[in-house]
Amino acid sequence: MKKIISLVVLVSLCGFIYAGPFGVEMGRAVEDFERLGIFLEQASTNNNVATYYFTPNNPHPIFTTYLVRIDNQKGVYDITAVSDVIEDSSYGTEIKETYNSVKEQISSAYGEPEEVDLLMPGSIWDEPGDWMMALYQKKGILWRSGVHR
Predict the structure, then answer these.
(1) For a designed S-S bond to 56, which of 22, 33, 93, 112 qualifies (C-beta 3.0 to 4.6 A apart)?
(2) How far apart are CA 102 and CA 105, in angstroms?
(3) Consecutive sets of 10 residues in the chain, 149 residues long: mean pLDDT of each?
(4) Rounded to two decimals, what is the model's pTM?
């Protein structure tokens, strides 16, 4: 049985870095994107934080959708990159291999990420073949990765 899922990599950083993920520096203001030739399309707003779709000047080949969260006062503090659909088995072999490959690339530039890959207490998804279904249904498994600075 094949399942489809997208790979999502979240990069959250506090403070400024010069060579930011996908060519976007942390702390940048909305106005800076226009000077960089990057068009922002607003997706949502929540208090002082706006989320935008964008296409970075330095995209990664696996990702097709990028979102950036920008605080009105602190600037860019979160970048999310999402891949197209990846077909996989119930064991999640393909998605895990793709994730590890991207993680190695990002880790070499920005340091080791904080990772969580565990079953939630009381989960019915407890067999190796259940991993993908739990991830697909967003039930029983917590799996995320992020680089924090």
Answers:
(1) 22
(2) 5
(3) 52 45 86 90 93 90 92 91 85 86 82 75 76 71 53
(4) 0.72
